[in-house]
Design goal:
Number of strands: 10
Shape: globular
InterPro entries: L-rhamnose_isomerase, Rhamnose_iso-rel, Xyl_isomerase-like_sf, Xyl_isomerase-like_TIM-brl
Helix content: 40-55%
CATH superfamily: Divalent-metal-dependent TIM barrel enzymes
Bound molecules: alpha-D-psicofuranose, manganese (II) ion
Number of helices: 15
CATH class: Alpha Beta
Protein name: L-rhamnose isomerase
Distance between the termini: 51 Å
Strand order of the largest sheet: 1-2-3-4-6-8-9-10
Organism: Streptomyces rubradiris
Number of domains: 1
GO molecular function: isomerase activity
Order of helices and strands: HEHHEHEHEEHEEHEHEHEHHHHHH
Keywords: Isomerase, Manganese, Metal-binding
Radius of gyration: 21 Å
């Protein structure tokens, strides 16, 4: 039997971080479809993130992306976020948009380009000091397109050297989260293509370096929950970038493509003792054709639903069936939890938290969408590439 009160209590502590870039305009390499009312600055992105938290109760922080979210005074931005009811979370670095990075950033063959990239990462840690952020999330677009283009092994050495310099700059409470991605923009080799490479670098660096699992960054058919179980077992799982994929790095709403996979991942998190603040639950999504704020609210709710189902797994019954070699019985225990309609439970949890039981409807009624369309006119709209 699962303890329903404990499940509710756990759900109330969940925190899903939303990404500043999901609030801005984004698109594919073919077209960016501009939406009315989209934030024109980091300050306005924070306003929108605060709405997501207000209506869900479980999205208390917003991740920044530097330099997209450049401001003069980061402490003031942190204070502004607090006044809005959220806080600034993970700092994401960006070493992929300058011309200098055509052949890579921290793995580039030219030491001057590597210096520029590492300096940017160090600057990100300065920003973390000002914002009070715990985590620096590193994703590198580095790699090669053609066999022989560069020395693949030397690139690993350059990567290790750059990471070590940044790691040494971290404060006591700060962490480095290293994100892997199978391919894109590089197509032949990617310098951090998989969890094993990320794990090896993190292991070499030390306890403050952890792997981040972006659910969209694997080959089709990859058993992501196995990776999660392994990283948790090694105490090296730093967090997630949740999103959905059908084909590659699609960045669609979490839980939209494969809610069963999200449940299986969350089960391993719960099973592995990862349902703590040590594991950061983040979204990494782009809403190109759908309204952004409701899409982010929906994504947060999808993560909550997967979590609720994972918490509902009758672990005693599962352990018994597993120990008895009862294949079908064990599978049935897991499926019983997955097949539970957790929406009434989550409505009750929200009511107890003082949040509207139906966040989507509450947001629609709030008038925020109309207000930002009316007020946010003119200026540069901020988003991917801004
Ligand atoms: C690029 O693939 C990417 O989507 C990575 O997942 C990063 O986390 C994100 O961009 C932000 O840099
Ligand atoms: Mn990501
Ligand atoms: Mn990605």
């Amino acid at each position: 039997m699962t303890d329903l009160a404990a499940v509710k209590a756990a759900l109330k502590t969940q925190a899903v971080e939303t990404p500043s870039w999901a609030y801005g305009n984004s698109g594919t390499r073919f077209k960016v479809f501009a939406q009315a009312g989209v934030p024109r600055s980091p300050w306005e992105k924070i306003q929108d993130a605060a709405r997501v938290h207000a209506f869900t109760g479980v999205a208390p922080s917003v991740a920044l992306h530097i330099p997209w979210d450049t401001v003069e005074d980061y402490a003031a931005l942190a204070k502004y976020a607090e006044d809005q009811g959220v806080r600034l979370g993970t700092i994401n670095s960006n070493t992929f948009q300058d011309d200098a990075y055509k052949l890579g950033s921290v793995c580039h063959p030219d030491a001057a380009v590597r210096r520029k990239a590492v300096d940017h990462l160090l600057r990100c840690v300065d920003i973390m000091d000002a914002t009070g952020s715990r985590d620096l999330k590193l994703w590198f677009a580095d790699g090669t397109n053609y066999p022989g283009q560069d020395d693949v092994r030397a690139r690993q050495d350059r990567l290790a050297e750059g990471l070590a310099e940044v790691y040494a700059r971290l404060g006591e409470e700060q962490r480095m989260l290293l994100e892997y991605k199978l391919f894109e923009p590089a197509f032949y080799t990617t310098d951090v293509p998989d969890w094993g490479t990320a794990y090896a670098h993190c292991l070499g660096l030390g306890d403050k370096a952890r792997v981040v699992v972006d659910t969209g960054h694997h080959a089709p058919g990859t058993n992501i929950e196995f990776i999660v179980a392994t990283l948790l077992r090694e105490d090296k799982l730093g967090g997630f970038d949740f999103n959905s994929r059908f084909y590659a790095d699609d960045d669609l709403m979490a839980g939209a493509a494969d809610p069963f996979q999200l449940f299986r991942i969350m089960y391993e998190v719960v099973r592995g003792g990862g349902f703590t603040s040590e594991v950061a639950f983040m979204l990494d999504q782009c809403h190109n054709i759908e309204p952004k704020i409701p899409a982010i609210i929906r994504s947060v709710m999808n993560v909550q639903e997967a979590t609720a189902k994972a918490l509902l797994v009758d672990r005693d019954a599962l352990a018994k069936a597993q120990a008895a070699g009862d294949v079908l019985g064990a599978n049935a225990v897991l499926m019983d939890a997955y097949d539970t309609d957790v929406r009434p439970l989550l409505r009750a949890v929200r009511e107890e938290m003082g949040v509207d039981p139906d966040p989507m409807a509450a947001y629609a009624r709030s008038g925020w969408a109309e207000k930002i369309v009316a007020e946010r006119v003119g200026g540069e709209q901020a988003g991917w590439g801004a």
